[in-house]
Amino acid sequence: VLSTVFGCALWTNVIFNLGGMTVVQISFSFAALRTLIAWFGFGRRIVEARIDVLKEQAFMRYALTRVRDSAEEIALCSGNVHECKHISSLYTAIASAIWSLTTVQVRYGMATHLCNLFPGLCIWMVLMPKLVSGEMGFGDAVRVHMGYDQVNKVFAFLVSNFDALTDLHANAERLQILLDACEAPCREEIAVQFEEAPEHIALQLQGVTPYSHSLQVCAGAKNPRVPGLSLLCPSGQGLLIMGPSGSGKTSLLRLMAGLCPWGTGYVKRPGGAACDHIQFLPTRCYLPVGSLQQLVCYPQWLKDDDTTEDKPVKQSLLRAR
Predict the structure, then answer these.
(1) Which residues fall within 8 angstroms of residue 306, CB to CB, at 6 or more apart?
(2) Which of 197, 233, 254, 268 has its CB 3.0 to 4.6 Å from that of 259, i.e. a possible disulfide?
(3) Is the link from the previous residue into 227 a cis peptide, with omega within 30 of 0?
């Protein structure tokens, strides 16, 4: 960095002594103009175009993953043609997004090329009277132009690395969108309230009803159905919830876990709103990528080289017991 700054200062001094203040102003003005065009003229457009490409590619990967995981079911349902057309439409969307990004990049390249062309012409036009009158030699004029090239390289850092910066910006913005969606608060009027359960209670529900789901509870064949669900499970005991398909068992489990907190009622569980003192077992087993130690301690995070510490493993095994 220091060598770059010193080099820029030395070449600026060469330009000033040989070409004058006008050439210095031209050099710095066009360098600033290139930066403004890159950032304010095309920055947002390129970022949005890259986000579209990343989004369409993500849709494509997700669709291919679903086809891979459900290949047998698709074959049994004769859905080959449907899935082929769906994947083809996603590929077309990717091609369209890439074409839009390429169009913006071509326009950006033309704009920066013009900004690179005009400064050299302007500098030679300013130096031409001095060359004609003999006040400046041709070698000095070439050194002035070389000085402009060196100064321009220093100030064109943003322009030269614009593709990498916009790519990084697009990925960071997509990640921020995901984080905002995960952390978006649920409106209180449609959110189930979580409270800390006493030590003698493992789980307690009071008037719980998943949002937009007609969950009905019936104590017997002759008893009328009442909305919502209330139950109490003391510590050390088990509870079995049974019902036909579509009756809301999975929705109720997601609501108790806090995955879909939209609904009404109160849920009392160990830890309250936090999930540190309660463990849910999914229908499909998930095995994270990593070592056996990381697998046992999941979801606790362990570094790849953390193989000497056995305390997290013991804690995980005791919790599972």
Answers:
(1) 293
(2) 254
(3) no
Q: Give long-range contacts, CB 8 A cutoff, 24+ apart: 196-201.
A: 196/268, 196/270, 196/271, 196/272, 197/268, 197/269, 197/270, 197/272, 198/268, 199/235, 200/234, 200/235, 201/232, 201/233, 201/234, 201/235, 201/268
CA distances from 144 to 17, 24, 26, 244 (A): 9, 10, 12, 84
Residue 312 to residues 287, 294, 302, 308, 315: CA-CA distances in angstroms?
Answer: 18, 9, 9, 11, 5
**In the block, residue with structure tokens 């010193």:** 6
Q: Is 307 helix (H, G, I), strand (E, B) or coil?
A: coil
User: 129-139: buried (b, 16+ CB within 10 Å) or exposed (e) per residue?
Assistant: ebeeeeebeee
With residue 129 as reference, give the H or E element that holds it: helix 80-133
Q: Which amino acid is at 300?
A: Q
42 in Cβ contact with 112 (< 8 Å): no
pLDDT tens per residue, range 250-301 = 878 888 887 777 777 888 888 787 766 777 777 777 676 667 777 777 767 6
**Exposed, middle or buried: residue 249 (CB in 10 Å: 0-12, 13-18, 19+)?**
middle
